[in-house]
Design brief:
The protein is 28% helix and 27% strand. With 381 residues, the chain is an alpha+beta fold. It folds into two domains: 4-77 and 147-217 and 310-359, 3-Layer(bba) Sandwich (FAD/NAD(P)-binding domain); 85-144 and 221-304, D-Amino Acid Oxidase, Chain A, domain 2 (2-Layer Sandwich), CATH 3.30.9.
Length: 381
């Protein structure tokens, strides 16, 4: 019997696994349905890491996640895992006024944030030449782009060296909570554990339901596209608050572009994984609006992934049933906080930390709630 089994090999799951073996918490097993880690939502994410978040939890989690990303890059040796691009957040004057408190919070935490007008932004980045003069651009030069898959692979390697057991390609079909153990049923026999942490992203609710419980959690679909700029470009990460569209540099000629949110519930076992035609049209219009070089851009491909929504856009972390713990609810900004959340959820599952009431998986009276748009975490409360 294992002391702890972690279900899910995304960014949250591998961070939890590394934390458990570093604390020498007995026999620890990570199970992942795919034959590789970070193959689902983690791999399809934009990978923006920004301190421009409002909630104190998120501020602390982003700061800690930065440390864990750097550790993984140092140990794994992948110099491309983290790209220090900086980010420009484009706002209307009223939106910028609404964000005054968050900008002040950045300054209070010693984080550089400058407020420019459209002309200043274009002077700094001439390729960003489609801005209206009254545009407000908030420049946060310390923001990153992270490769989530590279982080997960490096973290898994560190955890294995410290004694982590791993079963890839094992899809848990049922969780059975008993008095003295938890049994995971799968394709080639069961797995017994003293306690289980479900960090399976958008499959988390389905897994909890097999154990006889439920959580307020609904998967929704987002989209991302890869654009080729044959002549290259010079841009930071760019986020347009009014449209929730973002652009992430990914090499000298490739630009990632999202959001394409579809605010209705999707089944993680049955959803369209390619981008919609209207999403591709929206991205093309956004590129042409902001960058004249967009006229030369060519769509490489587009794809879709799922995010997990909760009623208050806060994650669900803690005990669901005796011996069964949960960590889910990225709400579209799980990568920037992911390593720290995984680490914290592991400490909760090991009994070394107590999740606060505002993260309690059963804090809502109903599991049914409306999906609502958000800012993907940047500027989120």
């Amino acid at each position: 019997m294992y002391d702890l089994v972690i279900i899910g090999g995304g960014v949250w799951g591998v961070a939890a696994a590394l934390s458990a073996v570093e604390q020498q918490f007995g026999r620890v097993l990570l199970v992942e349905a795919n034959p590789f880690v970070a193959g689902e939502s983690s791999a399809k994410a934009g990978g923006i890491v920004s301190d421009f978040v409002a909630h104190p939890d998120d501020q602390a989690w982003v700061a800690r996640s930065r440390e864990l990303f750097l550790q993984a890059q140092h140990v794994g040796g992948d110099r491309t895992m983290i790209q220090l691009n900086g980010m420009i957040s484009l706002c209307t004057p009223q939106e910028a006024e609404d964000l005054r408190g968050q900008i002040a919070s950045l300054h209070d935490r010693g984080i550089v944030a400058e407020t420019w007008d459209g002309r200043q932004a274009t002077a700094r980045y001439p390729d960003l030449d489609g801005l209206a003069p009254d545009t407000v651009a908030i420049w946060t030069p310390g923001d990153w782009h992270v490769n989530p898959t590279a982080y997960a692979q490096a973290t898994l390697g560190m955890a294995r060296e410290k004694g982590l057991n791993v079963r890839l390609g094992y899809r848990v079909t049922k969780i059975r909570v008993e008095e003295r153990r938890v049994v995971l049923e799968g394709p080639d026999g069961g797995i017994e554990a003293e306690r289980v942490l479900v960090a399976a992203g958008t499959w988390s609710r389905k897994l909890v339901q097999t154990a006889g419980d439920d959580i307020p959690y609904r998967p929704y679909r987002t989209q991302l596209a890869s654009l080729d700029f044959p002549g290259g470009y010079d841009l930071p990460i760019v986020r347009e608050l009014a449209t929730d569209m973002y652009f992430v540099p990914d090499g000298p000629h490739n630009l990632l572009a999202g959001d394409g949110t579809r605010l209705w519930e999707h089944d993680p076992d049955n959803y369209q994984t390619t981008g919609d035609a209207d999403f591709e049209d929206d991205i093309a219009a956004g590129v042409l609006r902001l960058f004249s070089k967009g006229e030369t851009a060519v769509l490489r491909r587009s794809w879709a992934g799922l995010c997990g929504a909760t009623p208050d856009r806060r994650p669900l972390i803690g005990l669901v049933m005796p011996r069964l713990y949960i960590a889910c609810g990225d709400n579209g900004f799980g990568i920037k906080r992911g390593p720290a959340i995984g680490e914290f959820a592991c400490r909760v599952a090991m009994g070394e930390a107590e999740a606060p009431r505002h993260l309690d998986p059963h804090r809502f009276p109903s599991v049914d709630f409306p999906l609502r748009p958000g800012s993907g975490g940047t500027f989120a409360s």
